[in-house]
Amino acid sequence: MFAGTRSTAATSCRAVTRCLVAAAAASLAGLLHAQEALPTVGEPPPMYVAEPFAGPGLAGMPGVVVPEPLPAWPRWFAGATGLVMTRTLSSGAATMEPLDGRQLFTSDASATWSGGVDFHVGRWFGPRQHHAVEMIYWGLYNVGSSASLTADPPAIMAIPQAPGVTVGGTSAGAWLQDASGQSIGRSDVVNDIEINWVYSLWERPEFLPRDRAVSLMWLAGFRFFQVGDTLTLATTSGQPDLDSLQLGVATSNSIYGAQVGAKFDWMFMPRVRLTIVPKFMIGGNAITNTTSLADATFAGGEPVNVHSTLGVFSWLGSVDTGVAWDITDRWSLSIGYRVVGVGNIAQADGQWPAVIDSPGSLEGIDAGSNTIVHGGFAGFESRY
Question: DSSP for 60-115?
């Protein structure tokens, strides 16, 4: 009985197993069929955001900031200018005693208007061209004139007199006492040399943008300024067999030191600007003076030719005011007026001797006077 029962149970289990396997296979086949029926889906987009500045950019973002290009202006500049200037003089010294209401003074040989030149050259440095170095030279030559006076009969008593002085064995009094005539002449010179560093706060004045009409630059540097004057007195003896006797007084002031200044430009018209250049310096002044009487000797045999020196501090202030026309980016024309004031200097008029009797009577220098050199200028500048 038990054996029949076990046989029946095994048969039942095998039947159930076959049913389960058949059902699982049917389910798997249905699932595969359903998956094949689904629509095809494309590849997912890449997880990447494009560079905003590579294309038109994203909405709401600012555009690309482009740096301002460096100026392509020419760096070198040079110019030449013609000058017509004069200078003021001291009150002058008498060259003779009064005669019939007439008298000759050193100031009668006035400083008339004279010509000169002005040259400058420089270069701008740096990417924005805010820094420059410039060199300047200007000078005036033969500034002066002459004046004369005659007496008939001869009665001019010259100043100075020269007791004890001889000229070729003849007393100097033969010329300086009872002279028939006098002639005083002047020949002055002015020289200026500058080396300056220039700093521009904004654009260079020749290339101002339309939204700015002014330019300001500072400068500092070294300056050498010389003003010298030479007076020559020719006294004609009342004796017809004697030539005239020459007395000369030559004084020179050589001022050197540091200076500061500024350059202001106002573009009041297209390509036309007003320019003002003030400068100021305090420097050492090496003064020399030479007084000589031609072919004359003192009683001791020394020649009447005495050279003296003196060192003092002097000051100088100058202002150039002009109008510049920038014809092109590379060429400009300018015209203006220059005023230079110099203080605590020596002038030949102040060294005129009262008497000549020994080397000591001609030694020493009297400083403390001043002069103003002024006049017009016109020229051009080239940039390259």
Answer: T-----PPPPPP----EEEEEEEEEEEE------BSB--BTTB--BGGGS----EE
Which CATH number covers residue 154?
2.40.128.90
Strand partners, 251: 229, 289
Is the residue at 17 inside a domain? no
Q: What is the mean pLDDT of residues 15-20?
A: 61
Contact by Cβ (8 Å): 266, 274: yes
pTM of the model: 0.82
Half-sphere exposure for 12 (CA within 13 Å, toward CB)? 6
Length of the chain: 384
| DSSP, res 208 | -
- The tokens describing 269, both together, are 């018209």
Count how many domains the chain has: 1
Enclosing domain of residue 249? 76-383
Convert 159-173 to b/e letters by CB count within 10 Å (16 or more is b).
bbbbeebbbeeeebb
Residue 34 in domain: no
pLDDT digits (tens, 9 = 90+) for 106-147: 999 999 999 999 999 999 999 999 999 999 999 999 999 999
